[in-house]
Design brief:
There is one protein chain. Residues 1-31 have low confidence and may be disordered. This protein has nine helices and five strands, in the order ααββαβαααααββα. The longest helix has 19 residues, at 192-210. It is of the alpha+beta class and 214 residues long. It has helices at 10-13, 24-27, 60-74, 92-106, 110-122, 131-140, 145-152, 155-170, 192-210, and strands at residues 34-36, 49-55, 80-86, 178-181, 185-187. It starts with 9 loop residues before the first helix and ends with a helix.
Length: 214
């Protein structure tokens, strides 16, 4: 896959340069729309088809993919659950970005500020990778500073970040954005449109399997 790169915060993005190509290994496999993973991973609700997007606010490709997958997710039927899992790759900068995501989610601010985080980092060149910068930015956005700080530093948020890291390891994530369906299928694609089209195909297969069809 070929994606335009941005030059912002080179010292930070350089930490994951080798990791940020969208689904590189799968995209290079001709004729593979999606690939079964082994072992399959558990999902939260066996009655639903779970789609996971592994991402990071710090990833320029995730920034480009975000509006597309968001619009796609909004159109999914009731048997499909779309979840997002921020990866850290054991980097402090991306760990803080993951903490920001889970804090916004826990404080009810994610829907309002999710797009703004991507915009701040990738368009406005704002460094949202250290605690102080994050705190100052959310304050400017009208977020209660004490509530945010308490949540950002809470055991609950750190537990979610740790769990996200465990999932990334279990799924063997080496690049983002990466899309997986129902804990069984890693989706490939030569561009974002193809990636989402192939996700639809993996969902159809998972749906047929749940209904007992082959």
């Amino acid at each position: 896959m070929q994606f335009a790169r941005r030059s912002f915060v080179r010292s930070i993005f350089a930490l994951g340069v080798a990791l940020t190509a969208a689904v590189p290994a799968l995209a290079q496999t001709p004729g593979k729309e999606f690939t079964a993973i082994s072992p399959a991973q558990p999902t939260d609700d066996p009655a639903k088809i779970e789609v996971i997007e592994f991402f990071s606010y710090g990833c320029p490709h995730c920034n480009d993919f975000h509006p597309l997958i968001s619009a796609w997710a909004a159109k999914q039927p009731g048997d499909v659950v779309v979840k997002r899992v921020p990866v850290t790759f054991n980097r402090a900068a991306w760990t803080n970005a993951a903490k920001l995501y889970y804090t916004l989610e826990a404080t009810g601010e994610l829907a309002r500020l999710d797009n703004d985080v991507f915009k701040a980092i990738h368009s406005e060149r704002t460094n949202l990778f250290d605690d102080k910068a994050i705190a100052e930015w959310v304050a400017k956005k009208g977020v209660d500073q004490k509530k945010f700080a308490d949540t950002y530093n809470s055991f609950g948020v750190m537990s979610k970040v740790k769990r996200a890291d465990q999932m990334a390891q279990a799924y063997r994530i080496s690049g983002v954005p990466a899309v997986y369906v129902d804990g069984k299928y890693a989706v490939a694609g030569n561009n974002f449109g193809e990636l989402l089209a192939n996700t639809d195909k993996a969902i159809a297969k998972a749906r047929s399997e749940k209904s007992g069809k082959k």
